[in-house]
Amino acid sequence: MDYQKYIDQLIKDVMSFAENVSDATKQKAEQAKTMIDIRKAEGELDKAYRSLGRIMYQIEKGVLNRDDLIVGAAVRQVEYQEELIEEMKKKMAEAEKPEEAEKAPEDTVEAAEETAEPAEAAEAPAEEE
Prior knowledge:
Number of domains: 1
Helix content: over 70%
Number of helices: 3
Shape: rod-shaped
Strand content: under 5%
Largest sheet: none
């Protein structure tokens, strides 16, 4: 049996596995960052709603005269935050789709295990001699 081919294949499989693990780690880190950004945007959305509510309350109580520019700006801020959150959620959903389709790290581990088994069997007779 040609051990050099076995070692080359094993090294190739290990490198492929390491690359796949690295890619998966990067994807998870990016998803975590996106989740944090979504939470921040949701906090900003809550602030925008409170601001709009405060303006409307002051208008209703007569403390503030109705100014369409002020109300419009507050509404646009709410809309902006809602759109931003929706965009980030779409981005995250799109990033998860390819991840579910590819199970390459598991395939690579199985290939490495299959490659390792014949070598162990080949070494056993050599030890008995």
